[in-house]
Specification:
Helix content is about 85%, strand content about 0%. By secondary structure, the chain is mostly helical.
Length: about 160
C-alpha cells in the first residue's frame, strides 16, 4: 500500500515532465527541474524498497535499527539532492514544502531508531506499527507536495 502511494507520487512528476517536454524548448528550466526532482525521488524509492525489504526479513531489533539508520542516511542524501536542485521561482515555496516533507520524515525515522535502543519485544512491535503509520503519512504528504508542484508548473 505505501509503495503504491509512492509510485503514484513519482508517476505524477513523470507525467508532468513528459507533458512539459512535449511543449518544446521554451520550458527548458522546468524540464530540467522536473528531471532532477524525479531522479532524486527515484533514487530514494530504490533505497526505500531495499531497506524495507531488509527490515522486514528480520525480527532482530539490532538489524532493524541498522536498516533504519541506513534509511535515515538515504533520506538525508535525498534532502541534500533536493536542496541542490536549481528551482524555478514559480515553485520555490512548493519545493521548500516538498523538502520539508523529507526533513520531517528523517526526524521521524531518527526517533524510531532511538525508540529501538532498549526495545522489548512488545515495544519493538509497537515501533513497527508506528513506523508503518508514519510511512503512510510521509507517502501522502510527499504525493500532495508533488501534486502541488505539478499543478503550479502546469499553470
Amino acid at each position: 500500500m505505501a509503495r503504491t502511494a509512492w509510485i503514484a507520487s513519482v508517476a505524477t512528476l513523470l507525467i508532468a515532465t513528459l507533458a512539459l517536454l512535449a511543449c518544446g524548448d521554451d520550458n527548458t528550466e522546468k524540464n530540467r527541474y522536473l528531471e532532477e526532482l524525479t531522479a532524486a525521488q527515484m533514487r530514494f524509492q530504490t533505497d526505500q524498497e531495499q531497506l524495507e525489504a531488509d527490515a522486514t526479513r528480520s525480527n532482530s531489533v539490532q538489524a532493524n535499527r541498522r536498516a533504519l539508520n541506513r534509511f535515515a542516511d538515504a533520506i538525508e542524501d535525498t534532502i541534500t539532492a533536493l536542496r541542490r536542485i536549481d528551482v524555478p521561482p514559480e515553485v520555490a515555496a512548493e519545493h521548500r514544502r516538498f523538502v520539508g516533507v523529507f526533513v520531517t520524515w528523517r526526524s521521524d525515522v531518527e526517533r524510531f531508531v532511538g525508540a529501538l535502543k532498549d526495545a522489548t519485544p512488545a515495544s519493538f512491535k509497537l515501533a513497527r506499527r508506528r513506523i508503518a503509520a508514519a510511512t503512510m503519512t510521509f507517502n501522502e504528504r510527499s504525493r500532495e507536495a508533488a501534486t502541488k508542484i505539478d499543478a503550479k508548473l502546469a499553470a
